Amino acid sequence: MILVTGGSGYLATHLPEFTDLFEEHHVPLRMVISLPSLDGIKRAVELNLGVALLPRRCAITEIASGRLVAVPVAGVSRKREVMLVCRKAHRSHAADAFLDVAQSKEERR
């Protein structure tokens, strides 16, 4: 398994879920390479140095060109929660309008 240096990102956030998944299937999870960038991780996978869990959007070009293949992982693949952040004061009219729409959609769920 190839990881991003510093323990950030999706894998670091959900590491217990991944380790549980591997343990359930009696497969040892070896994290052998840690690199500082997603580009480095993708290149290492291209060189057959291991596999990596990345958001699909991070490898669209490589997947489209056939250099990498996306494989859904049962029990792990999921939609990401996205949160809008903004300044509390001094927002533009457009920002306020967007927030009104976004918040009204959330209330309807």
Shape: elongated
Would you report the number of β strands? 2
Strands of the biggest beta sheet: in what spatial order? Answer: 1-2
Order of helices and strands: EHHEHHH
**Major pleated sheet:** 2 strands, parallel
Q: pLDDT under 50 segments (min length 5)?
A: none
SSE blueprint and pairings:
Blueprint: E1 2-4, H1 9-13, H2 15-24, E2 33-35, H3 38-46, H4 60-65, H5 93-108
Protein model, in words:
- This protein has 109 residues and is mainly alpha-helical.
- 42% of the residues lie in helices and 6% in strands.
- The chain is built from five helices and two strands; from the N terminus they run βααβααα.
- It has helices at 9-13, 15-24, 38-46, 60-65, 93-108, and strands spanning 2-4, 33-35.
- It has a two-stranded parallel sheet.
Task: List its traits.
109 residues; mainly alpha; 5 helices; 2 strands; 6% strand
Condensed summary:
The chain is mostly helical. 42% of the residues lie in helices and 6% in strands.
